[in-house]
TrEMBL record, chain B:
Stretches assigned to the XdhC- CoxI domain: 15-82
Protein name: XdhC family protein
Transmembrane segments: none
Domain of life: Bacteria
């Protein structure tokens, strides 16, 4: 690998931008393709598929044996609300490979006893969220049930283009929330991105089951191609 | 797998900049039950120091030896390990899978 390619690869990884390194395993020739350049690449179908699955693979194209090495940022999960569901959701998400952070200004909820080994920030969203670098590889859930906490958090998630945004609450609660967010300047397209009621409809009752429903929905958002995602929803 | 061996490629860059000969070994194909998925990598320097893994520790020794040659020659090579391989009695994968490992020089 040329040092210039390695340097660029490390810079892209540090910036949490997805890239794929394409190696001709016979000649050793290599090129780095950034996700934003996939659309005009001759290998775009393969590149898009492998990135979506987060899986590296060998492929044959144009009589060449190519190895596509996928460097996707580690997905993050930001949970706003240190509630009972979050106590089940945080360790489940971590076991699925997510970097998890829990945010809740209410110190009685955001206590290390309730969340052993999980990074906790006992601050309001406007203080807690900016340093977390919420990005397109972040799933964002708001589960406090308190508009003072959930609403500003959701507005932040819209700005950062999270791949998944979910919020706890019935359809009725969500309709009221949508009105409040509109009043604060949210666009219809942003509000439409909120998964509410949160989680896939699997009849979840207990906090752990709700956590499974949420992580299943997040997994679908991360892995399914856009068309199948619409069908699942 | 979402998480990757974050520091390995950074170490490769740092070693190379510090004037060391460096090679990168990457799992490019797996068949059957392989211990580490495609994309897993091992970085080796000319002192024989290595970071990361391409298997659960079964074939790293052999990969490091090959990497020394690659650092010398500058020519990449493909290695294959598995039970069907004749070297299996020496360095095989106990899990019964087969892996191909691409070894290249850095720089």
């Amino acid at each position: 690998m040329k040092l210039a390619i390695l340097h660029e690869l490390n810079a892209e990884r540090a910036a949490r931008r997805p890239v794929i390194l394409v190696t001709d395993t016979e000649s050793g020739e290599q090129r780095l393709v950034k996700a934003k350049d996939f659309a005009r690449d001759p290998l775009r179908t393969e590149l898009e598929k492998q990135l979506r699955m987060g899986k590296s693979a060998s492929v044959e194209a144009g009589g060449k044996k190519l190895f596509l090495n996928v460097y996707a940022p580690t997905a993050k999960l930001v949970i706003v609300g240190a509630v009972h569901i979050s106590q089940a959701l945080a360790p489940l998400a971590r076991s699925l490979g997510y970097d998890v952070t829990v945010v809740d200004p209410r110190t009685a909820f955001a206590s290390p006893e309730r969340f052993p080994d999980i990074p906790l920030i006992a601050e309001w969203p406007d203080t807690a969220l900016p340093p977390l670098n919420v990005d397109a590889y972040t799933a964002f859930v708001a589960v406090t049930h308190d508009p003072k906490i959930d609403d500003p958090a959701l507005l932040h998630a819209f700005e950062r283009n999270c791949f998944y945004i979910g919020a706890l609450g019935s359809r009725k609660t969500h309709a009221k929330r949508a009105d409040r967010l509109r009043a604060q300047g949210a666009r219809e397209s942003d509000i439409a991105r909120i998964h509410a009621p949160i989680g896939l409809p699997i009849g979840a009752v207990s906090p752990s089951e709700i956590a499974v429903a949420i992580m299943a929905e997040i997994t679908a958002a991360l892995r399914l191609p856009p068309k199948e995602k619409e069908e699942a929803a | 797998m979402l998480d990757r061996d974050e520091d390995i490629l950074k170490a490769a860059e740092d070693w190379q900049k510090a004037g060391r000969g460096v090679a990168l070994a990457t799992v490019v194909e797996t068949w059957g039950s392989a211990p580490r998925p495609a994309g897993s990598s091992l970085v080796i320097n000319d002192e024989g120091t290595f970071l990361g893994s391409v298997s659960g520790g079964c074939v790293e020794g052999a990969v490091v030896t090959e990497a020394m040659d690659v650092i010398q020659s500058g020519k990449p090579r493909m290695l294959e390990f598995g039970v069907a391989d004749e070297t299996a009695w020496n360095v095989g994968l106990s899990c019964g899978g087969t892996i191909r490992v691409f070894v290249e020089k850095v720089g």
